[in-house]
Amino acid sequence: MTRARAVLAALTLAAIAALSSCTTSVGGTAQPESPESTQPKPAVCDRSTDPQSCTEWKPTPPAKGDALFQAWATDEASSTHMLCSALPDQQWEQWLGAGHYRYVTDGTWCELWSADNQIALKLGLFGASPLTEYSTKFRSNPSIAKYVKDLRLAGVPAIVSNIAVDEDGKGQERDQLILAPHGDANRPGVLLVTLELHPPRGKPKDTPTDRTRIGFREPLAQALLGALFPR
Length: 231
What we know:
By secondary structure, the protein is α+β, with helices and mostly antiparallel strands. It contains seven helices and eight strands. The chain is 29% helix and 21% strand. Strands 1-2-3-4-8-7-6-5 form an eight-stranded antiparallel beta sheet, sandwiched between helices. A hairpin with a 5-residue loop joins strand 3 and strand 4. Helix 1 packs across helix 5 and helix 2 packs across helix 3.
């Protein structure tokens, strides 16, 4: 991770934490242990970048619309398993390839990885603040503001926060997205989506990478919104 990326990540998480009033965190703040977190770690967690915070994914029929955010408010870990269960395996496979795997980190992030560990898709929810609050908070900090752009994704308002090295075709590439899934940027509740492309393991960090491998944010957003926030 470059220093610029590390700084942006730290500032972004700080802004999110401020919005959450420290009651919860989309950035992975440890939550009180649930019974599932005390179980022996399954083999899939051995592939996690942080096995100690990993929980095996449990197929969980997802709630939809407001009910999904209600599930988040009462049991964030359960709602995260719902995110991991949002689409059928065949749909994940078209972006991640055969042999992809998934798990939950800190009870707050659903992580899906390609079998070669080069493509990562990370999903989260935060139900307490609208997209406009994120936009205002980010733009109030010059260190973040220059990296933030507004856009529409799958027909809904969204924010993308990338720095130059996230899009230079070398080493790790990334798209960090925050969507207003209901279509109203002033309505509380956002869907967090991060797409990452990593160089092959053992290769230098500045190894050229093919960013088109994570060029699926529009169809991904369409699929997730269609499954979780149907209109």
